[in-house]
Design a protein that fits this description.
Layout lengths: L5 E5 L6 E5 L6 E4 L5 E3 L13 H18 L13 E3 L6
Antiparallel strand pairs: 1-2, 3-4, 3-5
């Protein structure tokens, strides 16, 4: 089973702390608790929605490398399933 790396982002609508897969950075996602749609982004990051997709990919790579080096944030039994799902691009 492939391992996933997650980061925590607060839902802008219901305020819950959500586990979001790093590969969803910069994509539109749906909160599984309240149904709100929002853009997945690392809280407190300087990568605003106006930055290019390349910047988001670079940041995702940094997060993956950091998680691999520290051994935290990896999927498996210690992590819950993601709290958001991506929105297919053909529905935007």
């Amino acid at each position: 089973m492939p391992r996933s790396t997650y980061f925590v982002q607060e839902c802008p609508t219901c305020g819950r702390n959500l586990q979001v897969r790093v590969e969803y950075l910069g994509k539109q996602v749906v909160c599984q608790h309240c149904g709100a749609r929002f853009s997945a982004s690392e809280p407190g990051s300087e990568y605003a929605a106006s930055h290019s997709g390349l910047s988001l990919l670079e940041r995702a790579d940094q997060l993956l490398q950091s998680a691999a080096a520290s051994g935290i944030g990896l999927g498996g039994t210690a992590m819950a399933a993601t709290d958001v799902v991506p929105i297919p691009t053909d529905t935007l």
